[in-house]
Design a protein that fits this description.
Blueprint lengths: L6 H32 L5 E4 L1 E3 L6 H7 L3 E3 L2 H4 L8 H8 L4 E7 L15 E7 L1 H8 L6 E7 L7 H17 L10 E4 L4 E5 L4 E8 L2 E6 L41 E7 L4 E4 L4 E6 L3 E8 L3 H4 L5 H16 L1
Parallel strand pairs: 1-11, 2-3
Antiparallel strand pairs: 3-12, 4-5, 4-6, 6-7, 7-14, 8-13, 9-12, 9-14, 10-11, 10-13
């Protein structure tokens, strides 16, 4: 029997449509309960805890459900090619790729929205040219690149696959190598506040970042847009949340803000649905590594946003 074109996409569309029907009342109830629970709360700022694997293990860290910085996980990984400046140069020369230059006054990492950022031009560079350019100190422009598994002639995928084997063993969890990659960017580039459905580890092989995080209970206090808008994981706060006008965003004062400087060689554990914002304090290399979502993760109220995104994407694909 001939396969019906688009049948698989149709099944996925129906499945995510059903999830949206289930999650919508759960999300509304959770939003209302969270608002009541945090009403009158003073909020405040807390430092993200640093822990060593000499005193715990990775499954225990992932099971805690709160962000921590692992001081020695990266150094324990045995990699054929380490994703530092030397290692990246060794795997990528001869494979030019497009690099967007942005206005340095608003250097935001963007795959949705613009936050007022302005692209100046696009160049085609090898990895050596790109890395050399990042370390030229300039206040006139910024740039970044997120490499997926097929980047640099497949060299990125080889690093991610090698990491996945070891991290799956250490964590007892399946990795999602397709959602993992390597991010390289210049000083000041900021990823605005958003949340993901994955359990994530943010490795910092080169340079440092300033990290800001908010727990799922504060979703209603950090002004997420409606989950029924496509690509709605972003909040309505300014791209740097510390610049928010408190007279306009009054509920932000109720939220508990977790902060830390993620140093070179350290790893940030990002629990699913924890909102996070990161700013490069200097030219740097990061590895956003994701574990696969589990069925129980799909029933979290926060999954309504990615479910709507996937539904919208698959619906548009079917209508083309």
């Amino acid at each position: 029997m001939a396969k019906i074109p688009g049948a698989r996409s149709l099944v996925h569309l129906v499945a995510f449509g059903g999830l949206i029907v289930i999650l919508t009342p759960i999300w509304l109830i959770d939003r209302g309960v969270s608002r009541v629970r945090t009403m009158g709360r003073a909020g405040g700022t807390r430092e993200i805890e640093r822990v060593s694997l000499n005193n715990t293990d990775l499954p225990s860290v992932l099971g805690r459900g709160v962000p921590v910085i692992l001081t020695d996980l990266y150094e324990r990984l045995e990699l054929t090619v380490r994703p530092d400046l030397h290692g990246l140069r060794s795997i990528g020369d001869g494979h030019p790729f497009p690099v967007n230059r942005h206005d340095a006054e608003r250097p935001f990492f963007l795959y949705v929205g613009d936050y007022g950022a302005k692209r100046i031009r696009t160049d085609h560079l090898t990895i050596t040219e790109f890395l050399d350019d990042l370390w030229i100190d300039t206040d006139e422009r910024s740039t970044y690149k997120l490499f997926a598994r097929d980047g640099l002639g497949g060299g990125i995928g080889a690093i991610i696959e090698e990491m996945a084997v070891q991290l799956e063993h250490l964590a007892g969890r399946a990795a999602d190598v397709h959602a993992s990659g390597i991010w390289i960017g210049s000083k000041g580039v900021t990823t605005p506040l958003h949340h993901d459905a994955w359990t994530g580890l943010l490795f910092q092989p080169v340079g440092s970042k300033q990290v800001v995080m908010f727990g799922p209970e504060d979703r209603g206090n950090i002004y997420f847009s409606s989950p029924f808008r496509p690509t709605s994981r972003w909040t309505r706060l300014p791209a740097r949340s510390r610049e928010a006008d408190r007279s306009q965003f009054q509920r932000l004062d109720r939220a508990v803000r977790f902060e830390a400087r993620l140093g070179e060689g350290e790893t940030l554990f990002i629990p699913p649905y924890w909102s996070h914002e990161v700013e490069a304090l200097e030219p740097n290399v990061s590895i956003p590594f994701r574990f696969a979502t589990r069925p129980i993760d799909h029933l979290n109220p926060g999954f309504l946003r990615p479910a709507v995104e996937v539904f919208h994407r698959k619906l548009m694909a079917l209508l083309r």
